[in-house]
């Protein structure tokens, strides 16, 4: 038996057992953090014609944070009994994560019959991101599939993809627009990813990606009983920075009360590194489209997580496409520093310590922050190294 066959034989049982335990034991049991009840309750109020944004956004947690358009799209979650809908939602999230991993496996040129696919499933479902997404019962697994669908559409729809006809490439660009539009509707932090079709001058994807959230909100606005409260109550709350369950640099500032003398220079430095990595990667947009799309998307999302007002560690699932570039001839993840960073924001470790309780608590809160920041530095340095090497070689 060769090494690939041996790894595949070991990976499939591991994948099946881990998925079963995460979905049917851990997730169905639930945890103290319960994102689904908040969403289900708000959707039920919407269906019953009651006020959706009735929560006290000064202290209630978890909070309902979706726009009227997202409320309309999510309205099927309010149908049926709570337990049945929650169980179906968990299974759909798990299935979406597996489907996204399958697409990523194919994007990097591997067969689903190989060892990579089951290995990716097992490792992904062991990560903090997937574990907490399922246990908290939020929508991030479905958003992960929408993200990968967008990347697939951008790559397949590129004009340099001569393996497809022009009409087929156009269809994939429509698919990319629908996927990113739905993702933006649910979580607007996906909007910066429109940079990818913008560079390609792919107006179809951009138009559809913007039209879906705009039209959905216009349609839903008169249907939500207190839609004006979205602007008067929720939007102001979204503009604030919370000092709990927030791994962004802004969350660190709020938690430790970091002074502006340190906060702003570091924020500007990391923003410059993100921008530099994105600009330098443009060199590969025509030479290696898959590398450019998956790497640029990952660095953009890193910037969103680290630099915005809210970055939750389980968002790191959306960086899986960047990790999958390790199986391409060139990748940021061909360096040990990138894997160290990924371990910090993906490993489900409890750092609580009786010897150093404060340090342990801080590590639990901000290991993801350190991982994101380190990966930004590694990404910029690695891409700069590629650029210098290519420049020397002419």
From TrEMBL:
Q: Where in the cell is it found?
A: Cell membrane
Name the domain of life this protein comes from: Bacteria
Keyword rRNA-binding part of the UniProt annotation: no
The reply on keyword Transmembrane helix is yes
Q: Which UniProt keywords apply?
A: Cell membrane, Membrane, Transferase, Transmembrane, Transmembrane helix
Q: Name one GO molecular function term.
A: hexosyltransferase activity
Recorded GO cellular component terms are: plasma membrane
Transmembrane regions listed in the UniProt entry? 9-28, 63-80, 87-104, 134-155, 175-199, 206-224, 261-282, 289-307, 313-329, 365-387
Q: Identify the InterPro entries for this entry.
A: GT87 (IPR018584)
A Pfam family that the UniProt record links to this protein: GT87
Location, primary (coarse class) = membrane
Q: How does it sit in the membrane?
A: Multi-pass membrane protein
Q: What protein family is recorded?
A: Belongs to the glycosyltransferase 87 family.
Q: What is this protein called?
A: Arabinofuranosyl transferase
What is the source species? Corynebacterium flavescens
Which taxonomic lineage does the organism of this UniProt entry have?
Bacteria, Bacillati, Actinomycetota, Actinomycetes, Mycobacteriales
